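Progress against Task 2.4 (sequence-to-structure conversion) is shown through the following example record, which the project officer requested during the mid-term review.
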Amino acid sequence: MEAKWSKDWQEDNGQFIPYPATWLNGECWEDEFNKPVKPNVTAPDSPPKPIKRMCNPDDSPMSMRQILVATGKARTVQIFDKLEDQKKRKENAKKLLEGKDKGE
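Structure tokens generated for the chain above:
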């Protein structure tokens, strides 16, 4: 559809489209476009760089906590540790309850 190459469609790198009711009421589908306007997209000069995975020195993947520490997310590390502590407490409580049910 040629209308997509119009100035209205290309403004702000195509972030917004013309209001549909205005386009319909103005019968803009009948507009003629002599030459399509090229989109404002530029080809990258080089291919994208591969994502670097965070690994330990022995090439084993890092744990979530290790990644948070390495990236300097101190507050997130504190929250992560608190959640891990709560998880361990629940598991221990569950084991204790299971032991009591078995009559130990």
